[in-house]
DNA sequence: GCTAGTGATCTGTGATCACAGCTGACGGGA
DNA sequence: TCCCGTCAGCTGTGATCACAGATCACTAGC
């Protein structure tokens, strides 16, 4: 802490980008998160520590730590029989998750509308345009569309100015990811209906106009419509106890 | 899965309480969480895997997993020098955390006001009375008051009907816990000023009247006043770079 | 006297081993 | 033909060992 006073010769090194150590556990966590977010690990699917470790080319140790973090987040679950799987979500649970997202992401969008900077706005505009051009393509790439949709939403949330809030939303997306992607895989036609496009445009317009309630409504509608679409499809298990 | 059809004799066992296994990692996590929530681990304090393991009477393995979960939650941090410590929170970070709590917990309180059941309400009433009697005692027990305050807040949040939201709030409290408790330890006189008491009474009244905006305001005020009190005390490090 | 080098010690991380318990297929009995 | 006990092969969990790197007290050298 006496860097400034005593070590003037290396003062140029004082504020370096603080390159952080990359731990194997962290890498495994990122890899698993990606698998989940992209829907390549579907609800109900099992996961083996040793197999995953072999696939990643590491020992079970890092995978184990990554899995335990995912379990803590509720993105994976380990049954009493010691079986790791991505949880089946009941209709009720999915509905609760969607409502939570509506509330939390709505707040973030409203805040962004009020306090966004010029850079924030242009980032959001770019993200919206990127998603639009992909969704309106004659042959939309599903995986790419998912990624661009995510980019747009988080461009908005990044600008809300509350790091903890953004982090919460990231966790919620991790939880909802498998269900949403599984559905989109089964019913890719939703992309063409353009619901999301309209809501995104509304959100962008509201943010540009610094109209917080409108931004909140647009994001809420975006989430709600997607959730209702999935619930209508009935891919989720009924809470009344179907096996 | 053919329990019903083929094994009629044991059908009485079909819907047993699904007793869950207690893992050492889970126990360690609970123990560390408690240490953090009760403020016995102050911001900046270090933590050693081996020492903690020895203290708990287990190997480093379970502690390690517990710590990695806490780190994922941002409640602990591990520096590039591989030092585990509870993070120092800057004033800005604390302010952002408080604003996030105001938003999220406000939502939960508003929902509870609208949809609480009779049981919910009586649980909230009891919790409010318990905190009040402790806070108004001639010799308030600080640790007990903290616990009762927590009980009251979560009695309200439990009734909001959104499990994911409740979980988010629990994480936020874990994060804010060390700072709040450290401050309360240094300045116990805040308990006597009765700010919290007034806000709690307002929240209870609003919930009883099913007045969602008022409930949201009361909880927001409760959080905001506590945060401002702590910020005014100046125990947090300034973001401009004090060491 | 103060700085800079040095080595013992302790840190988290990762690999490997040991173990209890669940799973699921096989085979004997009704 | 169907049920049920049995056993091999997994599972996750926990302990232990190995290792690179950071810390900190100490000492040699200016």
TrEMBL record, chains A, B:
It holds the Pfam family FCD. Keywords: DNA-binding, Transcription, Transcription regulation. InterPro entries: GntR_C, TF_FadR/GntR_C, Tscrpt_reg_HTH_GntR, WH-like_DNA-bd_sf, WH_DNA-bd_sf. One of its GO terms (molecular function) is DNA-binding transcription factor activity. Residues 22-89 form the HTH gntR-type domain. PANTHER family: HTH-TYPE TRANSCRIPTIONAL REGULATOR MCBR (PTHR43537:SF39), TRANSCRIPTIONAL REGULATOR, GNTR FAMILY (PTHR43537). This is DNA-binding transcriptional regulator, GntR family. It comes from Methylobacterium phyllostachyos.
